[in-house]
Amino acid sequence: MTSDHSALSARRRRLPPVLRGLLVALALYGFLVGVSLLESGIAAMGEGFQEGLLESVSNPLAGLFAGILATVLVQSSSVSTSTIVGLVGAGTLPVGFAVPMIMGANIGTTVTNTLASLGSLRRPDQFRRAFSAATMHDFFNLMAVGLLLPLELLSARLLDLPDDKGVLAFLATRLTEVLRGTEISEPGTSPLREVVRTPAGWISDAVEGAIALGPLAGALLLAVGLGLIFAALATVTKNMRELVAGSVERVMNRVVGRGGGLVGILVGIVVTVAVQTSTITTSILVPLVAAGILTVRNAFPITLGANVGTTLTALMASLAVVHPEGLTIALVHTLFNVAAISLLYPVPQLRAIPLRIADRLAREAVERRSLVAAYILGMFVVIPVLGVLLLR
């Protein structure tokens, strides 16, 4: 009886690739519907909610810490950045306020790597390699934010750019005008948006029929929208893992060792775009480094490529929002990661900094296991919470 049950479960897992592909397409459609529902929920909450939200992130550092904390809580930068795109696309959150939040999401997403390294905690040599491979991602993203956030804020003050935008927001705005062919702040339409709005409208009408339109209805629409985003991304991740993850490991081993940094970055981008989440890419990398199959140095460029590849989710989310600013903030996410790699990776002295710090921390962590808990809680929970509370 047990063997029959196991065989049935195995057959259920072995869906034909065509069906898995259709399931992924359906999940992506559900994801866009979820983003559209976020927009409807925010509108239903009223202007008071929107003003309160803006006041809570008016400090750039508070926005940075909010982005870190939100991503840690949902364990997915795809969800947090899609939510930010929805807020900006609804006209609730200005692009300038959202930029630090996007950067914070980039830091928050690295907690997944660090948690993945704990699987080797009982084997000191493997744990040292795994923890180093995980935290190099943390330190690179911290360096990127330390360089580009001040640059963004200073350029907004010192350069005579329109609407007091920083350089990343300005470039993203110009790209948005080229790609969407409409002025910023002018609501746009597209066939895809109309298709997405139809089921979102049905759900909104059903909620409005059951509950008078207001904060309660808005909260319910936000909850349904977030639930759809979570479920859709989980479905995409699971099925893309089944479709391509088996070959991902072989590609990494075959190509990266002999191809150099640029090839590693491209592999990271392609793999992450294919599986629609950087979590799979990094979750494969950490065990490979722990086992000694890949070196930390070879895994580094793949991780950076994953940073760029994961921005596709926010770009897709921008297809479902009204205002072109939703695409602008999604492009800021992409430009931020591309700029970080372009400025930091080509310089050997700068490229070596995250690797050296990660190696030093990993060696200390092997000797003092309490340091691991202190690092994870301090970096991803305590500091962001204090930052949000003290700076808002």
Describe the structure concisely for a colleague:
By secondary structure, this protein is mainly alpha-helical. The chain has helices at residues 2-13, 17-45, 47-56, 60-74, 77-89, 95-108, 111-117, 124-158, 167-180, 191-210, 215-275, 278-290, 296-309, 312-317, 325-344, 348-367, 370-391. The protein has one domain (18-391).
Please provide a written account of the structure:
By secondary structure, the chain is mainly α. It has one domain (18-391). It has helices spanning 2-13, 17-45, 47-56, 60-74, 77-89, 95-108, 111-117, 124-158, 167-180, 191-210, 215-275, 278-290, 296-309, 312-317, 325-344, 348-367, 370-391. The longest helix has 61 residues, at 215-275.
Biggest β-sheet strands, sense, barrel: none
What count of structural domains?
1
Q: Segments where pLDDT lies below 50 for 5+ residues?
A: 4-12, 183-189
Q: What string, H for helix and E for strand, traces the elements in order?
A: HHHHHHHHHHHHHHHHH
